Automatic annotation (TrEMBL):
PROSITE patterns: FAD_PCMH. It comes from Lepraria finkii. PANTHER family: BINDING OXIDOREDUCTASE, PUTATIVE (AFU_ORTHOLOGUE AFUA_1G17690)-RELATED (PTHR42973), FAD-BINDING PCMH-TYPE DOMAIN-CONTAINING PROTEIN-RELATED (PTHR42973:SF22). Residues 64-240 form the FAD-binding PCMH-type domain. It comes from the Eukaryota. Residues 1-21 form the signal peptide. This is FAD-binding PCMH-type domain-containing protein. Belongs to the oxygen-dependent FAD-linked oxidoreductase family. It holds the Pfam family FAD_binding_4. Keywords: FAD, Flavoprotein, Oxidoreductase, Signal. The keyword Calcium does not apply. InterPro entries: FAD-bd_PCMH, FAD-bd_PCMH-like_sf, FAD-bd_PCMH_sub2, FAD-linked_Oxidoreductase, Oxid_FAD_bind_N.
Length: 496
């Protein structure tokens, strides 16, 4: 008898057909009812506070607008396993579909929420445990970096490769790659995972690490939600005391743009590589005005790292709040650089090899020109976000060469008020994207790599990793019935 039948036998529920090791309650036709029957108290419906807590917590209105039939909030790994078994068992009677969420910070509708099905809200899986040797931090698959990861590490002068803005979840961030403060020295967040506890499509719980289920371990490093639900991440810790962090805001003029084109090109030059330095240039049209802010981070307690000299000397600075801070404080401050939540949003991204200043000037100019045609869209915030690629060690599924330091990643993001403007904005962002890609292709600098966590619904990031066949093989091996391909429609799938 399966543990589930044992557990349920005592609850005097009418049980029927035993399938895939799980008994179904009789007379419960929907997946929501079935889960509610078997895991009482964990399922909430429209209007209840647990349902609203999930719905209201997504970053974009695109996700908030979907209405799941119910929200299931597991508190332990076995709840997640039980749930997936129910999904598998229910297949014969209906087409159950579900989505699962962590921090809810992915942009587009359906990535981590679903209309009519079950949304699994993982946020109660918020374990934090530091190993005795302090080399590993084990965190639950529903953890939020700023809430239950950084604050627990800081007292030990430790940190991990994680999110840089409050509210971002561990689950989506790490399975999609993860741009982080340590990335130029330690790579993507996914490069810094010793192991994953995963609930597979069969409901089986397995551990994936360098030594066990290695193929799954690699697939999860960039393969997103395609292989299972990660219920625990074992993260590599790094010592970290105070670091330099903050931003410099500029009054935008042509000179400021030209100076940034020069300074960024030179900052990205392999000769100037400094593994402790990471930065972002945020060039933004914000509801009627231009702004430009450089977010600057340096992993040592150094107020004046020479790698930033050229940026520090650009004139027209309005505000500079660079100081030595702890990671928690920097993450909280960085939240001020972006809206805390947005009504409608899309984004697209691309990567390229560093070029000369003229390349960057062309990218800026094209962006400025494009805003002219959409500047009257209500609430428009259009962001050109430019940052270096993490320097990966290559042990992941992203298909990027190890130790390469001169790669740049651009994210073009748009936020605005009304769904009625969706088509206009889609076209404008696509237009900027196409134009930029053209400039970079002409210069021989374009890289065919799409960062999944900044990818648009119409993009195919996993296709750009270069080895889809391997990931498809891992999916067939660990998820033979394709639960995470068919029953979980959200985000980027492996089979089309
Ligand atoms: C304000 C803001 C700041 C950001 N900052 C950064 C940044 O600094 N660096 C960066 O790289 N990206 C950043 N991003 C992008 C971010 O990494 C992605 O949106 C990421 O998906 C967010 O993870 P989440 O858990 O919050 O997302 P969710 O929307 O909850 O989930 C995203 C996807 O991951 C899957 N997923 C969630 N949990 C799990 C799990 N436990 N196991 C398996 N799959 C899971 C979900 O099914 C879903 O498909 C930022 C986004 C925003 C809005
Ligand atoms: C379950 O059965 C009861 C009667 O035994 C019936 O009243 C009820 O409508 C049924 N519920 C569902 C969801 O079928
Ligand atoms: C981090 O910095 C903030 C702001 O300076 C401070 O309030 C907090 O106590 C610091 N946290 C730790 C663990 O040192
Ligand atoms: C953390 O670093 C600070 C500053 O170097 C030091 O005073 C403190 O004792 C350290 N804490 C631990 C737990 O090592
Ligand atoms: C990359 O880092 C991970 C995590 O520390 C490690 O397991 C892996 O062996 C490293 N790969 C290489 C090529 O060093
Ligand atoms: C920004 O530049 C404009 C035009 O040069 C100038 O009028 C304005 O005073 C500047 N604002 C600040 C805060 O420096
Ligand atoms: C990458 O750099 C590390 C550290 O310098 C080195 O140990 C490793 O061999 C390099 N890997 C490759 C593939 O060049
Ligand atoms: C800048 O790079 C482009 C493309 O690589 C090249 O065509 C152009 O001549 C370069 N410009 C300068 C000023 O070096
Ligand atoms: C990121 O870029 C790739 C192509 O470069 C694209 O397919 C994908 O949709 C983009 N992501 C977003 C969010 O736009
Ligand atoms: C990027 O690579 C994918 C997969 O190899 C391919 O389908 C696509 O056409 C490429 N795109 C460009 C712009 O080269
Ligand atoms: C569900 O049933 C359909 C039709 O019988 C089948 O094609 C599909 O593979 C099944 N899916 C799962 C997850 O078992």
């Amino acid at each position: 008898m399966s543990p589930f039948s044992l557990q349920l036998a005592g609850s005097l529920l009418p049980l029927v057909a035993i399938a895939s090791g799980v008994s179904l309650c009789a007379n419960q036709t929907s997946l929501c009812q079935q889960v509610d029957c078997q895991l009482p108290g964990r399922v909430s419906y429209s209007g209840s506070s647990a349902y609203i807590s999930s719905q209201s917590n997504y970053y974009t209105g695109n996700e908030r607008d979907l209405e799941p039939g119910c929200v299931f909030r597991p508190t332990k790994t076995s709840d997640v396993s039980h749930f997936v078994k129910l999904v598998a068992a229910s297949n014969s009677t209906s087409t159950p579909e579900f989505a699962f969420r962590c921090g809810g910070h992915s942009f587009f509708a359906g990535a981590a929420n679903i209309d009519g099905g079950v949304t699994v809200d993982l946020r109660s899986l918020d374990l934090f445990e530091l190993s005795a040797d302090q080399k590993t931090a084990s965190v639950g698959g529903g953890s939020i970096w700023s809430e239950n990861v950084y604050p627990n590490l800081e007292p030990h002068n430790l940190t991990v490769a994680g999110g840089r803005i409050t509210g971002v979840g561990v689950g989506g961030f790490v399975t999609g790659g993860g741009l982080n403060f340590l990335e130029r020295r330690n790579g993507f967040a996914c490069d810094n995972i010793y192991g994953y506890e995963v609930v597979l499509g069969t409901g089986e719980v397995v551990y994936a690490s360098a030594d066990s289920n290695r193929d799954l371990w690699l697939a999860l490093k960039g393969g997103s939600n395609n292989f299972g639900i990660v219920t625990r991440f074992d993260l590599v810790t790094h010592s970290q005391g105070l670091m330099l962090g903050g931003s410099i805001d500029f009054n935008v003029t042509q000179t400021v743009l030209d100076d940034h084109a020069k300074a960024f090109s030179s900052w990205m030059d392999v000769q100037n590589f400094d593994p402790l330095a990471v930065m972002e240039v945020n060039f933004v049209w914000d509801d009627g005005a231009w702004s430009l802010a450089d977010a600057i981070y340096y992993l040592a307690p150094d107020l004046n790292p020479s790698v930033y000299e050229e940026f520090f000397s650009i004139p027209n600075q309005i505000e500079n709040n660079l100081a030595l801070k702890n990671v928690t404080a920097i993450v909280e401050e960085s939240a001020e650089l972006v809206p805390s939540t947005v009504s409608r949003a899309i984004q697209m991204n691309y990567s390229f090899k560093n070029g000369n200043a003229s390349i960057y000037s062309q990218l800026f100019q094209t962006f400025v020109d494009a805003v002219d045609s959409i500047s009257d869209v209500e609430g428009l915030v259009l962001d050109f976000l430019m940052q270096p690629h993490p320097v990966t060690n290559g042990t992941n599924s992203l298909g990027l060469s190890p130790n390469v330091t001169d790669r740049v990643l651009v994210d073009i993001g748009a936020a605005y008020n009304n769904a009625a403007d969706d088509d206009t904005i889609d076209a404008a962002v696509q237009g900027i994207f196409d134009h930029h890609v053209q400039i970079l292709q002409d210069a021989g600098l374009f890289l065919n790599f799409t960062y999944l966590n900044y990818a648009g619904a119409n993009q195919d990031p996993i296709g750009t990793y270069g080895d889809l066949a391997t990931l498809q093989g891992v999916s067939k091996k660990y998820d033979p019935h394709g639960i995470f391909q068919t029953a979980v429609p959200g985000l980027f799938k492996l089979f089309t």
